[in-house]
Design a protein that fits this description.
Elements: E1 2-5, H1 30-40, H2 45-52, H3 56-68, E2 77-78, H4 79-82, H5 86-91, H6 98-107, E3 108-112, E4 116-118, E5 123-124, H7 142-160, E6 164-167, H8 179-185, E7 187-197, E8 200-202, H9 205-222, H10 227-230, E9 234-235, E10 238-240, E11 249-255
Helix pairs in contact: 2-3, 7-8
Amino acid sequence: MLIMLSPAKTMDMSPKGVGNLPAPTKPLFGKDAQELAAAMKRFTKSELAKMLKVSPALAAQNYERYQLFGRPSNPRKAAIAAYNGSVFKAIDAAALSKEDLLYAQDRVRIVSTLYGLVRPLDEIEAYRIAFSLKLFPGKGNLYDYWLPKLTGPLIADVEKAGGVLVNLASLDIQGALHMDEIRKAVKVVTPEFQELRDGKYETVRTYAKICRGVMTRHIIRQRVESPDKLVKFMWNGFAFNPEISDDEHYIFTRERRR
């Protein structure tokens, strides 16, 4: 199985959490990242604040990031340790063994707006960017930029990993992929995590993100290779609910915690 994740907006480029990592790798779409970063470099701080819908402080931070992007002195870090959102905190790369991380290198792909398909050990630089941005005149947005590039390589990686894609990514990245082609080529499993509230199952974003990270960690550490073993996953009250699941959507539920 191959896991598909979304990147995190927050990034930690400090040396923290890199001591146990195997040798880093180069991003497969590094040249594309350089091209997109060069396009972002031309915008002012105020323009970035508006484009990225961020505060002046975050706009200033990302302005500096793009001014330094590509320089040998600019910090680089393995993606699995650089991304610092809820999903990646739950994966906890620092606590994984080198064998786990090498396994993850073959079994995890992060769909990045800047870097395309990212492997866990790919060294990346800090960035912030959005698929909705139009950086090149007459060429559409970044969904349009990536759509012709990513589907084929992702399918090839899934086939190498056994033919099952575990979709733990958020919906916003799927516009960069031909999901209909992927479903025709390989089996897609989309785990969802819902809580029973007032008689209805609801997705609580905070818990869902943590669950995605915990499930990713579980698959990596336990070497889960098939959907029938994936349904045995349990965490913090969440368990597979066959009554509301189907062939693609694996729903894990729990009652609301008070």
